[in-house]
Design brief:
About 20% of the residues lie in helices and about 40% in strands. The protein is α+β, with helices and mostly antiparallel strands. The longest helix is centred in the first third of the chain and has 22 residues.
């Protein structure tokens, strides 16, 4: 009985000491909040270290909600035989990335092999009236990934954003190994659970060293100019 009591006393004392150590741990030794997790691994040139440092400083970060975010690119036909072709809508429904509201900064990426082509609801919303066959859509996607974007060499598109003021952004797109930037108007809505940003921009494929797809000696081709629209939601974690 005495031995049992002594063991209990020693255990109690050890617990008291442990609690005292925990309670007296300096704040600087407390674990830092990691940045919010993304659904897929970020590419090597995504600025993960910057967000790690921001999280270590205690800055509030948001993550992109891929389910409620959408990037669309409108691709128009051209050439003397354009009437025999189709306009297309290319979309990403799996935008990933992080936002640092205090710094007015966001960095996003898109895996190119997850891009969709000609989702019926997006074609309807864009007012595209032609109806490409399933075979034509599959061929368009295959040519886009393999021959135009060269997605095996350049698997991601990266987008960096800096907020200039309440109604405009500086957006830089890193695509096909080339980086270009624009100042664009945008709608920025802040809420209790996060923020939503929407806007659009136009650019040329040739600005990124991309040759627009064409056949029949250019008689049927994709126009160089593309129109990109985005609506991105970022949420607390």
């Amino acid at each position: 009985m005495q031995k049992t009591c002594m063991k209990s006393c020693r255990l109690y004392s050890a617990l008291i000491c442990l609690l005292g150590i925990v309670a007296c741990t300096p704040p600087s030794l407390a674990p830092r909040m990691p940045p919010p997790a993304m659904q897929m691994a970020a590419p090597a040139d995504f600025p993960s270290a910057w967000y790690d440092a921001a999280a270590a400083r205690g800055e509030a970060l948001l993550r992109i909600d891929a389910v409620r975010s959408l990037v669309e690119i409108e691709v128009r036909r051209g050439g003397s035989m354009a009437r025999f072709g189709h306009d297309h809508i290319v979309a990403s429904r799996n935008v990933q990335g992080l936002v640092a509201p205090k710094a007015g900064r966001a960095d996003l990426f898109v895996a190119l092999d997850e891009l969709t082509v000609d989702e019926p609801d997006l074609r309807l919303a864009a007012g595209l009236t032609t109806e490409p066959s399933a075979e034509a859509i599959a061929g368009t996607r295959r040519n886009m990934l393999d021959r135009v974007l060269e997605s095996q060499r350049f698997p991601h598109a990266l987008i960096s954003v800096q907020q200039l003021n309440a109604g405009s952004l500086h957006v830089e797109l890193n695509l096909h190994g080339v980086r270009r930037g624009w100042d664009i108007p945008a709608r920025i809505d802040n809420g209790a659970e996060g923020m939503q940003v929407s806007g659009q921009l136009q650019f040329l494929q040739s600005e990124f060293g991309i040759t627009p797809f064409s056949v029949l000696g250019g008689a049927l081709q994709v126009q160089d100019a593309l129109s990109l629209r985005f609506k991105v939601h970022a949420v607390k974690f």
